[in-house]
Structure formats: structure tokens, C-alpha cells
Amino acid sequence: MAASFASRCSRVGRSLMDGIRNNFSDLPSTSREMACGSFLHQQQRTFIQMRTVLKVVDNSGAKKVMCIQPLKGKKGARLGDTIIASVKEAMPNGKVKKGKVVYGVVVRAAMQRGRCDGSEVKFDDNAVVLVDKQGQPIGTRVFGPVPHELRQKKHVKILTLAEHIA
Questions:
Q1: 137: phi > 0 → left, psi -120 to 50 → alpha, else beta; which?
Q2: How does pLDDT run across 80-122, given as a tens digit for each residue?
Q3: What span, in angstroms and rounded, lies between the C-alpha atoms of 20 and 8?
Q4: What is the b/e burial string over 131-153, where b = at least 16 CB atoms within 10 angstroms of the residue's CB?
Q5: Which SUPFAM superfamilies does the protein's record reference (predicted)?
Q6: Cβ-based neighbour number of residue 113 at 10 Å
Q7: Which of 11, 128, 132, 155 is deepest in the core (most CB within 10 A)?
Q8: Which segments of the chain belong to CATH 2.40.150.20?
């Protein structure tokens, strides 16, 4: 039963991709590849959920972490939410080592979020700042832009360390 369902799903996925390729058959090959790539890239903007790999944007020593569990919400984490993560890549002489379970605050998310004035904010990558259990940042610097929505979520210390507030 499960095997037949999986084979049907893979056939449906293949036929969907064939349909996309056929619709762009009149375009030059490079434009067709760019159009298909941008279509697929737009579909991947979702919540930060289990097994999402995030970039670490502070100087705590970690480079990449994988989300184990978002602490708020059923679907996943968004801007300003706290997650539990496992360190996947780390610098050799940093404060945080590979394999350690840490807490982090999402400071950049590829999923768009509406603001009060009607505008929307979204970033190109998913990024996190590592914090301790009390919510204080482990690192002393935060790199890249940080949205001002963190002030509403009571992460003012991260905003003071950030070099650019978006």
C-alpha cells in the first residue's frame, strides 16, 4: 500500500516537472532553466521547522545549526521565535562545539512576514543568533541585518549587538 502510494507520488511529481518544462519549451534553454529554477525557489519559502539548516550570524563559534524543535507554534518558527538546534558546523576554537544542543533566536527568515504599515519583510536566507536559556546572546557581535520586530519579542540585547537594523 505504502509503496504504491510512493510510486504514484513520484509519478505525479515527474509529470508536474515535465509540464513545467513543456510550457517553457519555446524559450531559449538558459531562460527556461532560469524560469524553472525561480519557480521552484519560490515554492520553498516555508516556516522554519524540524531539520531546517540555518546559518549562525554571531561570533559564538558555530557556523551552521539544524533545528531540532521550534519552541512556539505547531507549524514552525518565524522571525523572533526561539528554537532548539544542534550545531552541525563549528569553528575549532569557538565557544560552541559541534554536536552541542543550543537555543537560538531566528533573526532572518526566507518566509515573508507582514508589518503593521502593510509592507512585508523577507530575507534571502534563514539565520539564527545563539542564546542561552535566559535569552542572552552567547556571542558579542551580530552580523548582517536584523529586523526591528525583535523588539516586540523582547530580544532587545540582540538589537543592540546588531550592526544594521532593517
A1: beta
A2: 899 999 999 999 999 999 999 999 999 998 888 888 888 888 8
A3: 18
A4: beeeeebbbeebbbbbbebbeeb
A5: Ribosomal protein L14
A6: 14
A7: 128
A8: 53-165
